[in-house]
C-alpha cells in the first residue's frame, strides 16, 4: 500500500508532464511501510513462519522512492527522509540546500504516510483524542524547479528553530500582505493564539480538522494552498516532540 500511495500521489502531481531525467526525488515519511511491516511481524510471531519474500522486501520503506524514480524514468537523487513529526519539513530543507548548491535543477518532494493503525498510540503520542481527529492516509507532492518561469508559486523559506521566540521573530519577518496561517498537530491552542497575534491580516487554514490527519500532512497543506489560493502567503508552523519549531513560508502568485 505504501508504494502504491507514493506512486498515485506523484503521478497525480506530475499529471502527464515530461520530467527531466535528472529530476531528484525526496520522499518524506514518518512511519514508512506500516502495512507490510505489520504483515511480516504477524507471519513471524503469530503464524511462526518465515515472512513472504515480497512482504519482507517491502518493509524497507526507501524502496518506495526507488519505485517513484523508476516509474518516472528519472536518474537523479532518490532519497527517503524521516524525522520526528516534521519529516516533510526535513525533506524540503534538504531539497532547499541542494537547490542552493546547484546540485539539482528540478525535484519532486512528497509526504507519504499510511493511516495510523493504532488509535491508542495516536492518543499517547499527541496527547489528543483520536475521536476529534479523522485519521487518513495521504500522498502529497510538489514539483519544484530552480526556474521561476511557469511557476504558480514559490517556497520562500523553510527553517527550524530551537525555541518559540525565534519562530515568532520568523513569522513577523515573513508575514506580508494577506497571510494564511496553518498549524501542525502538536501546536496547542494557547501557542496558536501567540502566533496569530504576530499577523495583522490573516486567515487560518485548519486543514487537519477539515481534511483529516496523516503524519506528513504538512505536505498536503502546502500543496492545497498552492492549488487553491491566489495572491497570498502561507506560513505553516509545526513543532516536534522535542519542542523545536519547523516553519514553511510559501507564496502563491
Detailed description of the structure:
With 253 residues, the chain is α/β, with parallel strands linked by helices. Helices cover 39% and strands 23% of the residues. It has helices spanning 2-14, 34-45, 53-58, 63-72, 87-100, 119-126, 164-174, 189-196, 207-211, 218-228, and strands at 24-28, 78-81, 106-113, 138-145, 153-161, 179-183, 202-204, 232-239, 245-252. Strands 5-9-8-6-7 form a five-stranded mixed sheet, with helices on both faces. Strand 6, helix 8 (189-196) and strand 7 form a beta-alpha-beta unit. Helix 1 (2-14) runs parallel beside helix 4. The longest helix has 14 residues, at 87-100.
Task: Give a summary of the structure in a few sentences.
This protein is α/β, with parallel strands linked by helices and 253 residues long. 39% of the residues lie in helices and 23% in strands.
Would you identify the regions where 5 or more consecutive residues have pLDDT less than 50? none
Average pLDDT: 91
As a percent range, the share of helical residues equals 25-40%
Bulk shape:
globular
SSE blueprint:
Elements: H1 2-14, E1 24-28, H2 34-45, H3 53-58, H4 63-72, E2 78-81, H5 87-100, E3 106-113, H6 119-126, E4 138-145, E5 153-161, H7 164-174, E6 179-183, H8 189-196, E7 202-204, H9 207-211, H10 218-228, E8 232-239, E9 245-252
Helix pairs in contact: 1-4
Amino acid at each position: 500500500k505504501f508504494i502504491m500511495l507514493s506512486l498515485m500521489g506523484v503521478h497525480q502531481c506530475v499529471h502527464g508532464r515530461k520530467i527531466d531525467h535528472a529530476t531528484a526525488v525526496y520522499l518524506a515519511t514518518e512511519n514508512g511501510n506500516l502495512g507490510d511491516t505489520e504483515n511480516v511481524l504477524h507471519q513471524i510471531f503469530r503464524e511462526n513462519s518465515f515472512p513472504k519474500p515480497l512482504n519482507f522486501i517491502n518493509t524497507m520503506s526507501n524502496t518506495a522512492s526507488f519505485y517513484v524514480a523508476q516509474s518516472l524514468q528519472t536518474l537523479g537523487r532518490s532519497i527517503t527522509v524521516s524525522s520526528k513529526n516534521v519529516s516533510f519539513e526535513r525533506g524540503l530543507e534538504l531539497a532547499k540546500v541542494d537547490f542552493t548548491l546547484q546540485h539539482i535543477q528540478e525535484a519532486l518532494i512528497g509526504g507519504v504516510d499510511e493511516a495510523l493503525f493504532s488509535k491508542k498510540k495516536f492518543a499517547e503520542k499527541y496527547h489528543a483524542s483520536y475521536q476529534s481527529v479523522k485519521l487518513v492516509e495521504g500522498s502529497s507532492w510538489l514539483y519544484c524547479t530552480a526556474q521561476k518561469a511557469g511557476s504558480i508559486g514559490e517556497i520562500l523559506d523553510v527553517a527550524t528553530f530551537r525555541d518559540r521566540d525565534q519562530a515568532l521573530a520568523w513569522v513577523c519577518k515573513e508575514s506580508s500582505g494577506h497571510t494564511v496561517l496553518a498549524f501542525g498537530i502538536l501546536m496547542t491552542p494557547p501557542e496558536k493564539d501567540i502566533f496569530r497575534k504576530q499577523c495583522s491580516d490573516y486567515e487560518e487554514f485548519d486543514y487537519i480538522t477539515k481534511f483529516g490527519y496523516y503524519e506528513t500532512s504538512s505536505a498536503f497543506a502546502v500543496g492545497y494552498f498552492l492549488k487553491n489560493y491566489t495572491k497570498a502567503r502561507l506560513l505553516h508552523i509545526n513543532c516536534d516532540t522535542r519542542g523545536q519549531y519547523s516553519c514553511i513560508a510559501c507564496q502563491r502568485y
